[in-house]
Structures are given as structure tokens and as C-alpha cells.
Specification:
heterotrimer; A alpha+beta (388); B alpha/beta (606); C alpha/beta (210); A: 388 residues; alpha+beta; Heat Shock Protein 90; 3 domains; two-stranded antiparallel ribbon; 13 helices; C: 210 residues; alpha/beta; Rossmann fold; six-stranded mixed sheet
């Protein structure tokens, strides 16, 4: 008998040369095929099913018109979408260049150790070399973050006016001074043992950034540090929450926080703030649920999990709603796009079917399923998972 | 005109003041920098701008008791380089002024002319802006009144008086020098002084401001110039040499063509190790080709000296004693910030005669007084330089005492001249006491000739006979052969190798008679008239015979001795009136000359 | 909590004089490791360049600034920054007390006279828990009170009604000041309430100054 496609599928999934992710892809495709065929179970399918079970898949349960696979913890291909697999750990690893003792980039944000660099040119050469090693990866991880850092370090025209009337700048605060500003270079060559962090900001820049109260280069460096890391020493997370509570949510809402102090993690802080803003706006659109709980937990020693919950609120859309399972636009779509490369993102809620689900939009490993049944949730919750 | 608003840490985070102000922030000192230095540098960086007012907090940081804002205010008023010293100052804070006044004496600035305090509980920054627009500045600012009001304590320093006076004196003296911008050493010295911590402190600026109030003409600036140090080697033992005192002395002494050697101090060195190292350094220089002629020594050379109760244990005193023990003639100038007079007593006892006291800021000396201090410094150095020859003299005498070449049978002579407390020691001790005193010099001359006289009478040297009015004389040469210098002949004739020349020395009074002033030597013995030859058993004849024919001393030197002999006989021994009264001998020239002759006579030649 | 304090002094005489005047023995404080001159001083100094992790056992490192080279000072400074420690430099060349944040750590610079004073005794008697005691001695609480007063004053300048939790987060006051002066229930805080708190603090400051 000629081999049919199910033989082919079996051969393929039993082929040891396949990597786990390739095997998984084949399995997903095969489930789709089986559904389309409107099949009955036979021996070969039973074998395929066994293979699925080996990989922790549950039994295939055909449902009327909709043979969706519900699994207990691995990626499945749903009809509408699946978690986007990304690598925020990689981003963290790259950002750690700014704090690691063995990296020259550290000294773009920390005072120079005695005799570490022979001068400004030596320093810039050293960091450019290191930057070239990581910039492509960072660009792929998160372009905005990459652009911010690149401008802060290497943009020579900060403070210049562009044709459109806007200034060349970097970061959330649109700052116009950085490591490659010519004034800093001149300052460094104008005397012996000059400390770059003590460079006074030139008058023309101070004038256009007067409201920022930034007077020395170290002030700019501090802003930069706070734009790539949520820092515990400045209680940044708390401050962001409090500020957005006042400005976005209003004090008609009660915000209780747990464990928001004492954590530092790398991210693009501006993006993070925008995301929290969006979340708060969503909370605000449901004033009938005025109690907000924000909880921060450390998991497995290297994960910071931030949960923002609107207590007692439920999801109004069903779990199958395409805007839930594969949001293309809207706030969820925006959050997904923004946090890619920075943090895993999920929502959890009670859905109209009175079941609790977690929908994982961004995940760091392909073992995470798009939709999970969970036991309990105290309200519509946004979950952001940052890596240390 | 700018109106500066200096933000404190609280405001800098998130406060936007009225646009009337130009906001700024004082750069915090880095971990290695003093607050005063950071403040001074920041204020000078604003010097290019025209500043009408400065509004500043009582404290720049969250730690209120640092009172750093008040310190900035004082610096503005007291930093003489600032163009905006007289600007209106407005301090802002949250406390009532009576509370601030109780916290620190620095608050007294709040009560000085053209300074205001605003409690921001009561007044907004807009109101401050309005106030500044309307305030009439007192012009010119009454600095005297300001200085009267404020109180700046000297910086707390465990060494108390010492370090402050050292730094102050250095800066003060340098400010009195005539400018020599083309001189590398001058510039180097200026640079070092500009780095002194104390000159950045408020206390320095305060004292300087107070003394600056006196009028002083530029032409009275003064750089010490020393008269007698040319060719000498000066040793500097000063623990603050690195801070600028080494450069200070080097600049001054090298200007006057002296050579300078500076002892290097190490941090944290134990006192005993320091003393040993100093002694080694002194010994090395003492035995070198150009030994140190004058030492400038600070008394407190080690931290332990500040608590030392016995002055003889102070490092400087121990070193001075050591220097003098090796060579009593080496001159020592004590240079010190110490105002403890009893230390000086100890120094005088060991033979120190020159002192430089470093001016202290608490004395508030006028520029004229500082100038006098510098003149005194010049005088003290010149005094020491004048006596510097004593070191060389001492070395010669010690050499004589160790290396004389004489028949050991001449015990009496040896004992008289070479032994401890002998004539040579007596000569030195007298000169060391006072080498400018005429009576002392006369006595030295007498002692010198006593040596010569006794020497010429030694049997192992020669014999000069005289009988029946006739004389003859011979000397024993170094090879022990007998050499007849002159022999009496019959018929009043004398065979002789030389004859005396008579005449008058230039210092003789007109009324005095001729005297032997020199001699002529013949290529061979000649027959001369006894009477006219002048040869007898007198000292002069013996001396010429011995020195010329035995010791081979130069004729010029011998004739100089003859001259000195005349002086000795007509002034030192007896005032006969034959020598002009303004003629004096000097230790440096004449006595040293005699010692030099003794060196030629007595020291073994290798 | 402070577990251990290291003091490195290269001038034993200075310490001896101080301790004599105050009739104390620095070796009597179990929390303090007192390295005073001698070979030990050189050993510890050498560790700065060769094995800085050696200082990991100490939460506070106090050292005579002039005893170190610029490089050694830089190394200690960087170490303290990264390891969240407190570094204290004392020296005769320092004229004013200054407490600064350096990265995750703190640096206190103080004159020798102010260091070797009742401040040190007070500080050690309280197990080194409050660095401001070393900086300001018995006035350390006053320093904090005045700081709080200033903070609240500036806060009031542009204050809009906020919940108590946010106010406390914004002001970041020491707990003992909150416990003593901020006696209010959770809820929205009016401006007048802040003004009243500040007045009470001001009155206490005045009382402390006598």
C-alpha cells in the first residue's frame, strides 16, 4: 500500500533528526490536517496521538465544527493565533553591559575607575567596539530601546534642529545631550583628568531644556539609567504607579500595591510606562470596579512578575473572540507590540463561560500555551513578566 | 544681567521656578574633592556672566546641617576673583530666621548688607522675583561691615596651628613676590600654591580679605634676594616641601645662585625610621664633594612631634643636634610655624642663630608687616650664609687634628695645638661663637700666631742661634737633611739665601715707620751685610725660613702672613696706633687663610 | 542592620590622644574592627588593590583619606558603589561634613576633628545603625527633622490632594518621623493637614535648639 500522508506524518515525527520545535510544528500541522479531513480514529492516528501524549498533549477531542486542542501546557496552534515567542532575557543580557564590571559600556553610566581610560577618545573607541558587538541583536529585540541607547551614546547632532523643526534628541524626555556631543568632547580635552560626568551642560542646550533642571552631564546619565532600568534606589516603580494613578486613573480608584518596592529590572522604561498607562486607561473605562491591586512577586529567583488587577471585573469577550486570542490592534495589540523583547505578557480573567483563563500573548519559551485554564483570578489582570 | 537661582536637591527633581530666574545647580564634589574646591570652581565658572543676584538655599542637599548653601554665599562674598562678589544674595528656606541663626555661626551672613532671607512658607518664588526687580543694591557693598559681622572658624585640623600657618605663609609670601611669569620655577611654585587645600577654604579667603583691606603699593612687592649664598649648597628639611615649600626655597635660593638639595619625606613613615633616614642623608651629603653648607630645618617633621612634650625629642631638634655633632660649623636656619618660644631656646643652645617664623593667619599681618617678615627672612639667610665658611673651616681643623705629620717627640706642641680643646679647637669655638666680633678675631689671630711661633721653635723643625749679636739659622728639611738658611760670617757678613725687604703696609698710619713687608730669595747663598740683611733670631726670620725653605709655602702667602703679623702686633696684641683704625681682619678671609696655611704645613701629603 | 564596621587609621598617635581625652577604648566595641597603625595597617591597605572582596565582611568602612593613594580611593569608592556599603573618609584636609550617595552606596567625608569626637562614640554606642550620627552627632535627628520640614514645605508648594499612601511615597520620610508626626488615617490628605504637620515639626525644631 502506498504511503499516505499519515504514514508520512508518523515517519516524520519519529525521525530523530527533527529538533523538538520542528517536531512540534509537524504535530500542529498534522492536527490541522486531521481536523480538515474530518477523520475517524484509526491505528495510525492512535500512534500520532501517542506521540502527542509523549509530548504532553491531551487526547484529541473533536468538538462540533471546531476541533480545537486543549492541552496542559505546551504550545498549540489555535485557529486564530499563538503566543509570540520572544527573548526578553536576551535584551536583559545586552542591557547588563551597562552594569557589568568587565564591560566598557558600564562606564557610560558609572564614574570611571582610576586610570581606566586614557581620555575621551579612548573611551568612545572602547564602547563603540562593544556596541558593535551587541547592537544588531538589540535592534532585533526592541528597536525603540536600541534607538534610544544608540542616540545617547553616538548621536553627534543631538540638539540640532531637523528640517521638520524638531530637535535631534533621545529618550522619553527628548533630551539633547549625550556622549557624542561635541561640547563634551571639547570639555574632556580642555584639561587634565577631566571627569565627563562633571561637564556642565552648554547654555544653548540648557535654554531649550530649561524645565528639565539638568545642569551637568551626570544628570543626563541619571535620566538615561532610569530609562533603561526600573531602579529600586529611586523607587521608580512606585513612582510610576503613583504618577499614573493620579494622572490617568484618578483618585476615584483605590490602588493597593504589594511588593512594589525593592526591585530593579532592565527594560525600556518609557515603553513600560506607556503600557501601564494603557492598562490604567482600560481600568478607568470600567469605573464600576474601582479597586485596583498591583502586586509584584519574584519567581524562580530571576523573574519579576507584575500583576495589575481590576478587582471583581470580568472579561466581557468570550475566550474564542479573535480580539482576545489574536488581537491585531487595539490596546492589547499595542501592548503586545510594545513589550516584545522586553517582557512576557498575559492577561487573566473570568470569562463569560465562568471559567478562569490566562491568555499568554508573549512568551519566552515554546512550552507556554496560548490559553490556559487557571483556578482563580480576582479580576481582570494584566501580567508582565520581566527577567533579571 | 542674570538672576541666578541655585536649586537644592529637593527642587531640582521636579520644580519649575519662574522664568525670571536662570536656574543652576552647584556641581557636587567628587569623592576626592573638597567641598570648598568644588564650590570655588563652580563660582568661577560663572564669572563670564553679568550677575545681578543669586538666590540660593540654606543647604544644597537634603542634609540640612551641611549648610552648604550658606557656605556658597560666603564664598561668593570672599572669593576675590569673582566679578559678582557684591551681587544681591537671597537665601531661601523653610525655617524661620531665628531658628537658622541658632543652628550655626555661618547664619550671620544673613544679617550682612545686601543679603536677604526668604521663608518660602510665606513667600513664593514669584514674590522673590518681584523683590529682586525692585531692590536697590547698596553700592558699593560695604565689605568692611560684612567682614565684621561674619565669623569663620579656622578649619578643624588635628595638627591645629601647624598646617594652616604653613599653607597661609606660603601663599602669603608668594603673593608678595614681584611677578615673574616667564620664570618656570615661579610658575611652578604658583601652581603648587594654587593647589593647597587651605587656600580654598573660607577661612583663608576670610583672612585674606581682612588683610587686603590695607592699602599697599605695588612697588613694595618684594622677592627676597640673598647676598652671600652664591656657590653654596642649601639643604631643605621640610615635611611640607611637596606642598610648595620645597619649590619656594628652590626658587629663592637658585635665583641667588645657590644649589638646593631637598630631603624627600614619605607618608606614614615611623619616626625612628625617618630620623635614621635623615641622618643617613646628612652623612651622605657631608662626605660628598659639595657638602651642604646651610640647612633649612622645620622643627615638627613628624606627626608625633605635635604631641611631644619634651622639646629635645622633637624631630627637628634631634636632627639639628645631629647636624651640629658632625660639623659644628654647618649653619642651620630653623623655619617653623611653631610659635612656642621655648623651642627656640633649645635651638640657640645647640648653636642655631637664624630663625624664620612662618606667618600665621591669626596674626592678621598687614602687607607691610609681611614684607618685613620677608626682609627678616633675607637677613637671617644672609647671616647664615656669612657664617657658612665655618663648616669648611671646621672640616679643615678636624682634618688637621686627625692627620698632622709631626715628630711624635714634640708631645707638648701636639698637645697644645691638636688635642681636644687645643689651640685649633679654641680658634674654632671662638669663631663659632661670634665670627664678626673684633675682639674674637683678634684673639683668634693671636692664637694662630701662637701656633706658628711654637712651631718655628720646635727643635725638629730648625734652629736659629744668636750669639754676640750675630745670628745663623737652619731648618730640617722633610728628608731630614739640614738646610742652612743663613750663616753668620766674619766681618759682619752673613751668607744667606734671602733678605728682608722693608717698607710700609697699606694699612699703616703715615706716622709709623718702615717695617719688613716682604723678602727676596737668592738663587744661591749670597754674602750680605749682617746689619742690612735684618736677619736675626726674630720670629719673622724664623717663620720665613721655616715656611719657605722647609714647608715650600708660596712667597705671596708668607708675605701675607707678615702683613697679618704686623696687624697682630700692632692691633691684636697691642694697640699701638700704627694701623689705620678702619682696617679689620675677617674670619672668612684671614683666619681661614691661616688655617689653610696650617693645613699645608701639618697635614700628611699622600 | 549593620553587622560590622572597619576603621583603618595610619596615625596611632591621633587615635590615642582622642581616646584618652574621651576616656574610651575603641577596642571595647564588638562591632568595630579597629586597625590602628602597625603592620596590620599595611596589610589592610594592600588588600584594597589586591583583594577588595576582603572587605565584604564590613558594612561600613572608615579610613583616613590621606593614607590612601588616589587609585586606592577610587577602588574603594567603586566597591562601595556596587556593594551598597558605606564609606567614610576622614582627614585634616576636609573642612565640611558631606554625606553623598554614590551609586548604591554612601560616602561620608568628615574632618578628623569631627570624626574623632563624641559623634563617633554616639555612633558606636548605637551599633552604627545611623550614619547621620557619625556626621552630625547628637544633632542627627535635628538634621532629619529639618530635612523633613524642607521637603514638606516644597511639597506643599505645588500640592494637590492625594491619598496618604502617595503622600508618604512622595515624601519618603524616615519611619520615626512618620510615626511621630503623620498621625492620620488612610484617605485623601488635605493641604492644610500637611501645613499643620509642618508647623508641629517646626515647633519641635525650635524646642530642640533651645
Amino acid at each position: 500500500m502506498a504511503k499516505d500522508k499519515y504514514d508520512f506524518i508518523l515517519d516524520l515525527i519519529e525521525n530523530k533528526k527533527l529538533t523538538p520545535s520542528q517536531r512540534e510544528w509537524v504535530l500542529r500541522l498534522s492536527v490541522k490536517e486531521m481536523k480538515n479531513d474530518g477523520i475517524e480514529f484509526d491505528e495510525r492516528l492512535r500512534k500520532i496521538e501517542e506521540k502527542l501524549r509523549e509530548c504532553n498533549f491531551k487526547k484529541i477531542e473533536p468538538q462540533s465544527g471546531n476541533s480545537k486542542l486543549v492541552s496542559s501546557g505546551i504550545n498549540t496552534q489555535s485557529q486564530e493565533g499563538n503566543p509570540i515567542i520572544h527573548n526578553p532575557k536576551k535584551t536583559v543580557k545586552l542591557l547588563k553591559y551597562f552594569t557589568s564590571n568587565d564591560k566598557n559600556l558600564k562606564y557610560s553610566t558609572h564614574s570611571w575607575e582610576f586610570d581606566k581610560f586614557s581620555g575621551y577618545d579612548h573611551f568612545m573607541e572602547s564602547i563603540e567596539k562593544e556596541w558593535n558587538e551587541i547592537k544588531d541583536e538589540l535592534r532585533n529585540q526592541n528597536f525603540r530601546l536600541y534607538a534610544k541607547i544608540s542616540s545617547f551614546l553616538f548621536q553627534k547632532h543631538l540638539g540640532d534642529k531637523k528640517d521638520d523643526g524638531y530637535y535631534v534628541c533621545w529618550g522619553e524626555k527628548k533630551l539633547k545631550f549625550g556622549w557624542s556631543s561635541s561640547y563634551l568632547k571639547d570639555f574632556m580635552s580642555s584639561g587634565e583628568n577631566r571627569d565627563p560626568f562633571n561637564c556642565p551642560i552648554p547654555e544653548q542646550i540648557r535654554l531649550i531644556e530649561k524645565e528639565r533642571n539638568l545642569f551637568y552631564f551626570e544628570d543626563y546619565v541619571t535620566v538615561f539609567k532610569n530609562e533603561i532600568e526600573i531602579r529600586e534606589d529611586s523607587n521608580a516603580l512606585k513612582k510610576i504607579i503613583n504618577s499614573l494613578w493620579e494622572n490617568e486613573l484618578s483618585y476615584d480608584f483605590q490602588v493597593k500595591t504589594e511588593g512594589v518596592e525593592g526591585y530593579s529590572f532592565f527594560t525600556d522604561v518609557a515603553i513600560f510606562k506607556e503600557v501601564i498607562k494603557l492598562i490604567f486607561r482600560n481600568f478607568k473605562s470600567r469605573p464600576e470596579f474601582p479597586n485596583i491591586n498591583i502586586r509584584v512577586e519574584k519567581e524562580h529567583g530571576n523573574i519579576i512578575l507584575i500583576k495589575l488587577a481590576q478587582l471583581e471585573s470580568k472579561c466581557r469577550r468570550i475566550i474564542d473572540d479573535p480580539k482576545i486570542i489574536s488581537p491585531d490592534g487595539g490596546d492589547l495589540g499595542t501592548i503586545i507590540k510594545s513589550m516584545k523583547g522586553l517582557a512576557d505578557f498575559s492577561i487573566s480573567a473570568i470569562f463569560p463561560d465562568n471559567k478562569n483563563y490566562r491568555v499568554n500573548y508573549l512568551a519566552s519559551n515554546n512550552l507556554v500555551e496560548l490559553i490556559e485554564r487557571i483556578e482563580f483570578t480576582d479580576g481582570f489582570t494584566y501580567e508582565l513578566k520581566f527577567y533579571l | 544681567m542674570k538672576n541666578i537661582l541655585i536649586l537644592n536637591d529637593i527642587m531640582a527633581d521636579n520644580y519649575s521656578p519662574p522664568t525670571f530666574f536662570e536656574t543652576d545647580k552647584v556641581s557636587p564634589p567628587n569623592y576626592d574633592e573638597d567641598l570648598n574646591v568644588a564650590i570655588t570652581n563652580y563660582l568661577i565658572s560663572l564669572n563670564n556672566s553679568e550677575i545681578n543676584s543669586v538666590t540660593l538655599p540654606i543647604s544644597l542637599s537634603n542634609n540640612f546641617l551641611e549648610l552648604s548653601g550658606l557656605i556658597v554665599g560666603h564664598h561668593i562674598r570672599l572669593t576675590k576673583e569673582l566679578m559678582y562678589r557684591a551681587a544681591t544674595l537671597i537665601f531661601y528656606g523653610s525655617l524661620s530666621i531665628d531658628v537658622i541663626a541658632k543652628i550655626s555661626p555661618l547664619a550671620s551672613i544673613l544679617f550682612t548688607p545686601n543679603v536677604h532671607y526668604v521663608n518660602i512658607n510665606e513667600f513664593s518664588f514669584d514674590k522673590i522675583a518681584d523683590f529682586i526687580k525692585n531692590v536697590r543694591q547698596q553700592d558699593p557693598l560695604n565689605f568692611d561691615k560684612f567682614l565684621e559681622f561674619i565669623r569663620i572658624d579656622p578649619p578643624a585640623n588635628y595638627q591645629s596651628h601647624h598646617s594652616i600657618a604653613n599653607d597661609w605663609a606660603l601663599a602669603r609670601y608668594f603673593s608678595m613676590f614681584e611677578k615673574e611669569n616667564g620664570n618656570e620655577m615661579y610658575n611652578c611654585l604658583g601652581h603648587k600654591i594654587s593647589k593647597l587645600d587651605y587656600t580654598k577654604t573660607l577661612h583663608f579667603k576670610y583672612v585674606e580679605s581682612k588683610v587686603e583691606r590695607q592699602k599697599f603699593k605695588k612697588k613694595n612687592f618684594y622677592t627676597p634676594q640673598f647676598n652671600n649664598v652664591s656657590g653654596l649648597t642649601i639643604g631643605i628639611i621640610e615635611d611640607e616641601a611637596d606642598k610648595g615649600w620645597g619649590d619656594f626655597y628652590q626658587f629663592l635660593f637658585e635665583k641667588s645662585d645657590a644649589k638646593v638639595e631637598i630631603f624627600q619625606f614619605y607618608k606614614e613613615e615611623r619616626k625612628a625610621d625617618l630620623i635614621n633616614r635623615l641622618k643617613k642623608w646628612i652623612d651622605e651629603h657631608n662626605s660628598s664633594k659639595s657638602p651642604i653648607d646651610i640647612y633649612v630645618v622645620d622643627l615638627r617633621l613628624h606627626d608625633e612631634d605635635f604631641e611631644e612634650k619634651k622639646s629635645e625629642n622633637i624631630t627637628g631638634n634631634q636632627i639639628i643636634k645631629y647636624i651640629k655633632s658632625i660639623n659644628k660649623g654647618t649653619q642651620v636656619i630653623v623655619s617653623t610655624a611653631s610659635n612656642k618660644v621655648w623651642n627656640f631656646q633649645k635651638n640657640i643652645e645647640v648653636g642655631v642663630t637664624s630663625f624664620i617664623v612662618k606667618e600665621s593667619p591669626e596674626t592678621f599681618n598687614t602687607r607691610e608687616e609681611t614684607r618685613l617678615t620677608l626682609l627678616n627672612l633675607t637677613k637671617e639667610v644672609d647671616k647664615a650664609a656669612d657664617k657658612a665658611f665655618l663648616a669648611k673651616l671646621y672640616r679643615k681643623i678636624e682634618l688637621l687634628k686627625k692627620c698632622y705629620d709631626l715628630d711624635l717627640n714634640e708631645k707638648d706642641f701636639i698637645s697644645l695645638v691638636f688635642e681636644k680643646k687645643g689651640l685649633l679647637d679654641k680658634i674654632f669655638d671662638l669663631l663659632n661663637l661670634d665670627c664678626f666680633n673684633d675682639a674674637v678675631l683678634d684673639q683668634c689671630l693671636l692664637l694662630g700666631f701662637q701656633i706658628l711661633e711654637n712651631y718655628c721653635d720646635l727643635k725638629s723643625i730648625g734652629s736659629f742661634g744668636s750669639s754676640e749679636g750675630l745670628s745663623s739659622g737652619f731648618v730640617w728639611k722633610k728628608d731630614k737633611s739640614k738646610f742652612d738658611v743663613f750663616i753668620n760670617q766674619q766681618n759682619s757678613k752673613i751668607s744667606t739665601w734671602f733678605e728682608l725687604k722693608t717698607g710700609r703696609f697699606d694699612f699703616q698710619e703715615d706716622s709709623s715707620s718702615n717695617t719688613p713687608i716682604g723678602y727676596s730669595v737668592f738663587p744661591k747663598m749670597e754674602s750680605k751685610s749682617s746689619f742690612h740683611s735684618g736677619l736675626d733670631a726674630s720670629f719673622l726670620v724664623k717663620m720665613i725660613s721655616v715656611l719657605h725653605f722647609r714647608e715650600n709655602i708660596d712667597k705671596a702667602d708668607i708675605e701675607r702672613i707678615m702683613k697679618l703679623r704686623y696687624y697682630r702686633s700692632n692691633v691684636s696684641a697691642h694697640l699701638t696706633g700704627r694701623v689705620k683704625s678702619d682696617i679689620k681682619i675677617t674670619a672668612k678671609n684671614d683666619i681661614s687663610f691661616l688655617i689653610g696655611i696650617f693645613e699645608k704645613i701639618f697635614v700628611k701629603t699622600i | 542592620m549593620i553587622n560590622s564596621i572597619l576603621l583603618i587609621e595610619d596615625r596611632p598617635n591621633r587615635q590615642r590622644i582622642f581616646t584618652q581625652d574621651l576616656k574610651i577604648d575603641l577596642n571595647d566595641f564588638p562591632i568595630l574592627k579597629n586597625i590602628c597603625g602597625g603592620d596590620d595597617f599595611y596589610l589592610y591597605k594592600e588588600k584594597i588593590s589586591s583583594e577588595i572582596a576582603f572587605f565584604g565582611a564590613y558594612d561600613i568602612i572608615i579610613i583616613h583619606r590621606s593614607a590612601l593613594t588616589p587609585e586606592e580611593r577610587a577602588l574603594l569608592r567603586d566597591y562601595v558603589d556596587v556593594k551598597s556599603k558605606i564609606l567614610v573618609f576622614f582627614s585634616g584636609g576636609i573642612s565640611y561634613t558631606l554625606l553623598q550617595k554614590i551609586g548604591k552606596g554612601q560616602l561620608l567625608t568628615v574632618s578628623s576633628e569631627d570624626f574623632y569626637s563624641e559623634n563617633l562614640v554616639l555612633f558606636l554606642n548605637n551599633s552604627g545603625e545611623e550614619i547621620l550620627e557619625l556626621a552630625f552627632g547628637k544633632f542627627w535627628e535635628l538634621n532629619m527633622l529639618v530635612g523633613a520640614h524642607e521637603k514638606i514645605t516644597f511639597y506643599i508648594l505645588k500640592y494637590t490632594k492625594k491619598p496618604l499612601s502617595v503622600v508618604l511615597d512622595d515624601l519618603d520620610l524616615p519611619q520615626w518621623i512618620i510615626d511621630k508626626y503623620v498621625k492620620m488615617e488612610d484617605g485623601m490628605v488635605e493641604k492644610d493637614q500637611l501645613i499643620a504637620i509642618n508647623k508641629t515639626i517646626h515647633a519641635d525644631i525650635k524646642k530642640k535648639l533651645g
